[in-house]
Design a protein that fits this description.
single chain; alpha+beta; 5 helices; 10 strands; elongated; binds uric acid; urate oxidase activity; EC 1.7.3.3
Length: about 280
């Protein structure tokens, strides 16, 4: 009871995003990564905070957020969201759904003289690698804060548009599954180039270079594709490092706990085309 009235209260922190990586913990020594979005609500005995302005029994919601990162750090083995929620004791946890699931797109332009322009694409193809990515050697000026790194997370959501050479309907292959199979095959080339061979992976010095190699691989593999446009936002995963005077090593970053953030993100896009056929 508070001042003769019944007071029901709770406080918490919503949408705490945390991503945890376990190095070499997966099949064949692969890294394992999860991304969680945690909401915490505390039903606690802190009525005086409401009625008397006495904060002595308040757990700060900022502390709740930090606790999520600290507890993620403590998960030394790969952990389910259920276990993580239990670890956080009576708090609600859910997996943050991976960004988008990809869509097959197409654009067809046909004029009455039979001239065709045919574009296929994939939209929202989420790709993430936990290692073999860095970013170094870029311009440093008085506004530059970004440290150089040989080890970072590389996450993107690819939008690709590829234009076929077919200039009329009659030039289109007649197999009924042609475009379905081509979509699958282009996607595979994109994905395989992004990750590199499963045994060794491939180092990415920048989103720009990886994007270019993906486009080259598609044009080299499919002669009937005239050009490809790739858009690859650089979705940042910020290292979480928490410390204070009293707690210098609360969450010491060791390539393991990240804050996934899509705002703001880098926007990187390019189009690669075959040179026009020389007309003799
Ligand atoms: O691969 C990258 N390309 C950039 O252009 C860029 N800019 C940035 O801040 N980080 C990165 N990463």
């Amino acid at each position: 009871m508070a001042g003769g009235f019944k007071l029901e209260q709770q406080h918490g922190k919503g949408r705490v995003r945390v991503s945890r990586v376990w190095r070499k913990a997966g099949e064949g020594g692969a890294d394992v990564i999860v991304e969680w979005n945690v909401s915490i609500s505390l039903l606690s005995d802190c009525l005086e905070a409401y009625t008397d302005g006495d904060n002595s029994s308040i757990v700060a919601t900022d502390t709740m957020k930090n606790t999520v990162y600290a507890k993620a750090k403590e998960c030394t083995d790969v952990e389910s969201p259920e276990s993580f929620a239990i670890r956080l004791a009576k708090h609600f946890t859910s997996f943050y759904p991976k960004l988008g699931s990809e869509k097959h797109t197409t654009e067809v332009n046909l004029n009455k003289f039979g001239a065709l322009r045919l574009i296929s694409g994939v939209q929202g193809l989420s790709l993430l690698k936990t290692t073999q990515s860095g970013f170094e050697g870029f311009i440093r000026d008085r506004y530059t804060l970004l440290p150089e790194t040989k080890e970072r997370m590389l996450a993107t959501e690819v939008t690709a548009l590829w234009r076929f050479q077919f200039e009329s309907i009659s030039a289109i292959p007649t197999e009924s599954k042609f475009f379905i199979e081509r979509y699958r095959d282009v996607k595979k080339v994109i994905v395989d180039t992004f990750f590199g061979p499963p045994s060794s992976g491939v180092y990415s010095p920048s989103v720009q270079n990886t994007l270019y190699l993906m486009a080259v691989a598609v044009l080299n593999r499919f002669p009937d594709i005239a050009s490809i446009q790739l858009r690859m936002p650089n979705i940042h995963f910020l290292p979480v490092n928490l410390s204070s005077k009293d707690n210098p090593n609360l969450v010491k970053f060791a390539d393991d706990v990240y804050l996934p953030t899509d705002e703001p993100h880098g926007t990187i896009e390019a189009t690669l085309s075959r040179p026009p056929l020389s007309k003799l």
